[in-house]
């Protein structure tokens, strides 16, 4: 499904909030409260009001420009926001409710054991930052869980300041229960980031425009109205003699090109663009005899938007060394606080080494201080696409090593078929492992961003 659908949905949700009626006392409010304590970096501020649009019961979080919502037709929980590419299915809301019930059961048990310290029993649970807690007016005390370390804390007149009561797992042992460790919900969030990196959707739209501009510059048929393109490369003059070797020898060592969409105009593909892009190709060397080509590049993107959605802003740079005869490629792209199409601020480097139909990709990136990823990927072409389709074909993506936020990540035969599904995998799996426990995500050909986690 096209990404612009999700953008339209987001705008619709925001506007409709002004006229919608909240569902007071909805059971999903407890899930929202709990998730706010677990993931304040994704959904904040806590306690945002719940409201209804169509079949969605949801909250909007202005600090993180994100949404949490439940589709009442299938009781699935969804996240919509800048960290991930589109609307993400987080599974059944009842599965998340089980996590909430687990924490509340611990509060209930402690109330029964220590009524002299925390009473009256059965107080409502609420959230502040990373704390999920209850306040007890009779004893003027608090009992809470810190999601950062999963410790239980007491705050009240019997102790000066917060009293650390130890791991929640210890108290569950006293209860005779075995709690889950909360890793499933964390894996769901991290998995979406890995998939965006592995399938190269992070720079979608921006790369399309850069390629179109360069293709126009190199063919000598640059558009003049939308965008307004300027360049120091005169292909017609260079090719006037018909001597390819002379034309290549006459190429400037630095090629510049810019495309300006102004405050907005409709491009040849029918999309409405605004902003501008500037490209500089430096130290260009081409040897027609050996087929070697090399250069460095820098792209400066100024609030480039497609159909009112930002697809790039900032500076990225890179280099290329390739041999056209052997189809060998060595390249890198560096990001420095570069904003990509799903709103993430990327820092880091991506390198590519290719020979024939095998592409080795190394990623070492961080985003917004929220997650960091180091992945070594191997992308192997399984079948060729049509000759007229530069991006056709079916590819299998695997990883030789990888880590995301402390999890070891293994990508196994992730199938990318752009003809079948434009943005999402249609097969394969991603495995997350931490502290001896593994979670596996698998994909089918539904082409809607969904996956199975077990």
Percentage beta strand: 35-45%
How many β-strand runs? 25
The coarse silhouette is elongated
Structural class: alpha+beta
Q: Mean pLDDT across all residues, rounded? A: 78
**Annotation field: number of helices:** 8
Q: Pick out the low-confidence regions.
A: 1-25, 387-391
Can you describe this structure?
- 21% of the residues lie in helices and 43% in strands.
- It is an alpha+beta fold and 454 residues long.
- It folds into 4 domains: 3-95 and 185-189, no CATH class; 102-121 and 132-178, no CATH class; 203-341, no CATH class; 349-454, no CATH class.
- The protein has a 15-stranded antiparallel β-sheet that branches. Strands 1-2-3-4-5 form a 5-stranded antiparallel β-sheet, with helices on both faces.
- Helix 2 (28-38) packs across helix 3.
- The radius of gyration is 26 Å and the shape is elongated.
- The chain starts with a helix and ends with a strand.
- The model is unreliable at 1-25 and 387-391 (pLDDT under 50).
Question: Descriptors for this entry?
Answer:
8 helices; 4 domains; alpha+beta; five-stranded antiparallel β-sheet; 43% strand; 454 residues
What layout of secondary structure does this protein have?
Elements: H1 3-16, H2 28-38, E1 50-53, E2 56-61, E3 66-71, E4 76-80, E5 87-92, H3 93-113, E6 125-128, E7 131-136, E8 141-146, E9 151-155, E10 163-167, H4 168-175, H5 183-198, H6 206-219, E11 228-231, H7 235-238, H8 244-249, E12 255-260, E13 265-266, E14 272-287, E15 292-306, E16 309-323, E17 328-339, E18 345-355, E19 358-367, E20 371-383, E21 394-404, E22 407-417, E23 427-434, E24 437-442, E25 452-453
Antiparallel strand pairs: 1-2, 2-3, 3-4, 4-5, 6-7, 7-8, 8-9, 9-10, 11-12, 12-14, 13-14, 14-15, 15-16, 16-17, 17-18, 18-19, 19-20, 20-21, 21-22, 22-23, 23-24, 24-25
